Amino acid sequence: MSRSPASPTALQLDEVTRSYRSGISNLTALDHVTLGCRRGSWTAVMGPSGSGKSTLLNCAAGLDRPDSGRVFLDGTDIAGLGDDALTRLRRDVIGFVFQQFNLVAALTAAQNVALPLRLAGRTDADGVAAEALHLLGLGAHLAHRPRELSGGQQQRVALARAVATTPSILFADEPTGALDSASAGIVLDLLRSLVDEHGQTILMVTHDPLAASRADHVAFLRDGRLVSTLAGADAATIAATLTDLEGAR
Ligand SMILES: Nc1ncnc2c1ncn2[C@@H]1O[C@H](COP(=O)(O)OP(=O)(O)OP(=O)(O)O)[C@@H](O)[C@H]1O
């Protein structure tokens, strides 16, 4: 395995292409996409429906294999990895948060966060889980079950679970999509502080220009191609870029 932990990019996609067979034709969901995420930076991926955002996230996280091109996760070229090595790399290097929080209803917040640590054989799971929940402002809710928490609090538990393993990169798929604007704001503030204060790298798919404006960079996809990038853009600029892309379809 070619691994260089000192790599300044937590994630690098080089010319990644992924097609799907649809009937007798081929649909190119990702078309030679090259994208890098520097350590300690936050990248948002936007684009019209069907532009390839989920496919990009799945290829980047090793959940799907590109037809061609290369994906480096934490300096490791994942193309050459077998299923077991890929599973281990995903467990050790990646954190995930989704629109739906995917918490285990029968477990408390602390048990939900400790679960992946326990599965990884960590004997310090309970302490690390409590620390992650404190970090995300949920110190008073360790013993609460998901149904006793608001949507925003549940997403913060999911976030604590994702970062408790100190992943090199956090993948977020519409992390604020199910939240009201106040809860979304709290989650976005927390993501920002994970980047600024803890050097977390984040790749986030979102439809929301306000959420994307909190990222350092925004990458825009259209028809599977990376067509534009913005750095430090405000929500209005991002929304206008997205509208242009949708209009150009
Ligand atoms: N498993 C699959 N089999 C066939 N086609 C697929 C598959 N997954 C995605 N596609 C197609 O690939 C293209 C890109 O899909 P993808 O889900 O990546 O887009 P997206 O930008 O995430 O869309 P949305 O914003 O609607 O979630 C679409 O045309 C989609 O229909």
UniProtKB/TrEMBL annotation:
The keyword Translocase does not apply. GO terms for molecular function: ATP binding; ATP hydrolysis activity; transmembrane transporter activity. One of its GO terms (cellular component) is plasma membrane. Residues 11-248 form the ABC transporter domain. InterPro entries: AAA+_ATPase, ABC_transporter-like_ATP-bd, ABC_transporter-like_CS, ABC_transpr_LolD-like, MacB-like_ATP-bd, P-loop_NTPase. Signal peptide: none annotated. Keywords: ATP-binding, Nucleotide-binding, Transport. PANTHER family: ABC TRANSPORTER RELATED (PTHR24220:SF685), IMPORT ATP-BINDING PROTEIN (PTHR24220). This is Putative ABC transport system ATP-binding protein.
